[in-house]
């Protein structure tokens, strides 16, 4: 990558962060500026972009429970959304055609359907990046959005197979041998340890699976996703994911830059792209309505639908293939690139304010909620425990065990991840599944029974959101939280949290206190 690309990416990313926008918006802008200045993307940028997407799909797989894809709220919502979107949006575009608006006037029904199909997908890169930045990958709405994205990716790969005429070879059946050699792969992963060899192992498996699937004429990105799912049950899956996080984020900069390099727009093209962006609210309405219809809580439906309300980079791939097959004018590649970019910007601007917006208008959204919920969204509060620990990771479990040493009936835990709750419950812990950032959740909890809330959450945004929800619900007890950095600690203290523990400082103090006991015992 040329230094000029890094320079502009850094400057624009820093500018975006200064104005409280995600850095990815700055990277998109940097690509357009460099393109306008006459710079062209070379092979190294393409390689960097592909690496980022491959690593991202691999890490998604590491965190994904494949059984969740067969839930109605995922596969059925995704399928119905695509069908309804195509029908309704084709009608809208044909109205543009009748109105003789620009390039729309030259579209026939088949071409319009192709464009609408390309726009039916949501951006995997944009949504995952958004959820990660807000610490919501493991929440109910985060997992719901990711599951729908995976279904869309599978449909996308199927389209590419049909459009390119690239069918899997007979050797694709040999991929089933992976299940036979899985014990060997697990032992290798166990043996690499926890040092610098671990991220290299992640690279090897992710890129190796990409190449392996490409050899048998199956899209490599799908291979990285499937092999990630294949390894998701391994004890080191989370550790591998964390070791690849910074590499993935760095390589994805290439992806955002490459979108900017894809087009030099005219004013007319900008106007047409803006018209396509105006259809995005339909995507939100369809997702929200379908998820509510499938008995998903209104807040979960709202957040999932909002995250998915954008256009996908896959639209550019569809357009590129269509142009090469002379199904579509090359002008539409530029228009779709602009529409995709605009949708990224809009999603990144709106989503950080989603929780506050929902809190202010929750009664409106509640009108669309079904009277009955799915079993995993139901909650029964323990009545005799005055302490709740939110976030049952290592810190949360450590706090829970420490309290239980005094009295095993004092505390109960709350976590948004059903698999974790099930595992801890089997181990005898009093842990329940629930989304503490949901305003309706706290309205159904008897807050008078709670005296202390411990926020054992690594993401300060989550702690802020939950504190605001507790205050809105009228909670009068004490709140304690953890923070990783001094600026986060100050932010939480200004919010009114009674006690904030610096994660690293308090760990050091505890370590010193325990160690000093060794000397005192000796004396």
Average pLDDT reading: 83
Structural class: mainly alpha
- Separation of the first and last Cα atoms: 61 Å
Give helix % range.
Answer: 55-70%
CATH fold label of the largest domain: Na+/H+ antiporter like fold
Compute the number of strand runs. 6
Write down the overall geometry. Answer: globular
CATH class of the largest domain: Mainly Alpha
The whole-angstrom Rg is 25 Å
Number of helices: 25
Number of domains: 2
- What CATH architecture of the largest domain do you see? Up-down Bundle
Beta-strand fraction estimate: under 5%
Widest sheet: strand ordering: 3-2-1-4-5-6
Largest sheet: 6 strands, parallel
Q: Could you list the spans in which at least 5 consecutive residues all have pLDDT below 50? A: none
Question: What features would you describe in this structure?
Answer:
This protein is mainly alpha-helical. It is built from 25 helices and six strands. The termini are far apart.
Brief characterization of the structure:
By secondary structure, the protein is mainly alpha-helical. It has 25 helices and 6 strands.
Descriptive labels:
Rossmann fold; 6 strands; Na+/H+ antiporter like fold; 2 domains; 25 helices; mainly alpha; 523 residues; globular; 6-stranded parallel β-sheet
List the helices and strands and how they pair.
Layout (H helix, E strand, L loop, with lengths): L2 H16 L4 H14 L6 H20 L9 H27 L10 H11 L4 H10 L6 H25 L12 H4 L1 H10 L5 H19 L4 H11 L6 H25 L5 H11 L2 H14 L4 H10 L6 H11 L6 H20 L3 H7 L1 H5 L20 E4 L3 H13 L4 E5 L2 H9 L4 E3 L5 H5 L8 E4 L4 H13 L5 E6 L2 H10 L3 E4 H20 L1
Parallel strand pairs: 1-2, 1-4, 2-3, 4-5, 5-6
Helix pairs in contact: 1-2, 2-12, 3-10, 3-11, 3-12, 4-5, 4-7, 4-14, 5-16, 6-7, 7-15, 7-16, 10-11, 10-12, 13-17, 14-15, 16-17
């Amino acid at each position: 990558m040329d230094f000029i690309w890094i320079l502009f990416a850094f400057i624009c990313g820093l500018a975006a962060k200064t104005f409280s926008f995600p850095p990815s918006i700055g990277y998109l802008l940097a690509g357009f500026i460099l393109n306008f200045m006459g710079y062209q993307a070379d092979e190294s940028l393409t390689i960097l972009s592909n690496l980022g997407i491959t690593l991202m799909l691999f890490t998604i797989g590491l965190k994904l429970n494949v059984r969740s894809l067969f839930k109605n709220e995922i596969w059925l919502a995704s399928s119905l959304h695509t069908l309804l979107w195509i029908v309704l949006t084709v009608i809208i575009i044909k109205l543009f055609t009748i109105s003789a608006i620009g390039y729309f006037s030259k579209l026939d029904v088949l071409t319009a359907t192709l464009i609408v199909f390309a726009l039916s997908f949501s951006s995997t890169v944009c949504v995952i990046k958004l959820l990660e930045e807000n610490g919501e990958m493991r929440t109910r709405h985060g997992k719901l959005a990711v599951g729908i994205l995976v279904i869309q990716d599978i449909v996308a790969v199927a389209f590419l197979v049909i459009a390119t005429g690239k069918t899997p070879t007979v050797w694709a059946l040999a991929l089933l041998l992976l299940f036979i050699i899985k014990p060997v792969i697990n032992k290798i992963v166990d043996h690499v340890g926890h040092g610098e060899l671990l991220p290299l192992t992640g690279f090897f498996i992710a890129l190796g699976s990409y190449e392996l699937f490409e050899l048998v004429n199956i899209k490599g990105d799908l291979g990285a996703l499937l092999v990630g799912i294949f390894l998701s049950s391994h004890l080191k899956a989370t550790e591998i994911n964390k070791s690849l996080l910074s590499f993935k984020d760095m390589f994805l900069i290439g992806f955002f830059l490459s979108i900017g390099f894809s087009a030099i727009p005219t004013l007319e093209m900008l106007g047409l792209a803006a018209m396509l962006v105006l259809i995005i609210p339909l995507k939100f309405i369809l997702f929200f309505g379908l998820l509510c219809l499938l008995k998903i809580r209104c807040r979960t439906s709202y957040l999932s639908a909002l995250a998915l309300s954008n256009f996908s980079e896959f639209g550019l791939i569809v357009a590129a293939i269509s142009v090469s097959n002379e199904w579509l004018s090359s002008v539409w590649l530029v228009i779709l690139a602009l529409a995709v970019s605009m949708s990224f910007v809009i999603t990144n601007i709106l989503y950080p304010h989603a929780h506050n917006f929902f809190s202010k208008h929750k009664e409106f959204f509640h009108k669309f909620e079904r009277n009955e919920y799915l079993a995993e969204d139901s909650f029964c509060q323990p009545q005799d425990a005055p302490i709740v620990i939110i976030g049952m990771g290592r810190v949360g479990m450590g706090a829970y065990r420490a309290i239980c040493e005094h009295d095993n009936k004092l505390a109960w835990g709350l976590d948004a991840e059903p698999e974790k709750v099930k595992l801890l419950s089997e181990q005898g812990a009093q842990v329940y599944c629930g989304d503490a950032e949901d305003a309706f959740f706290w309205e159904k909890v008897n807050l008078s029974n709670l005296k202390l809330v411990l926020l054992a959450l690594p993401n300060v945004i989550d702690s802020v959101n939950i504190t605001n929800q507790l205050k809105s619900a009228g909670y009068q007890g004490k709140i304690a939280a953890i923070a990783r950095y001094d600026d986060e600690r100050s932010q939480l203290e200004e919010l009114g949290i009674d006690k904030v523990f610096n994660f690293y400082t308090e760990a050091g103090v505890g370590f010193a206190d325990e160690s000093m006991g060794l000397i005192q015992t000796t004396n």
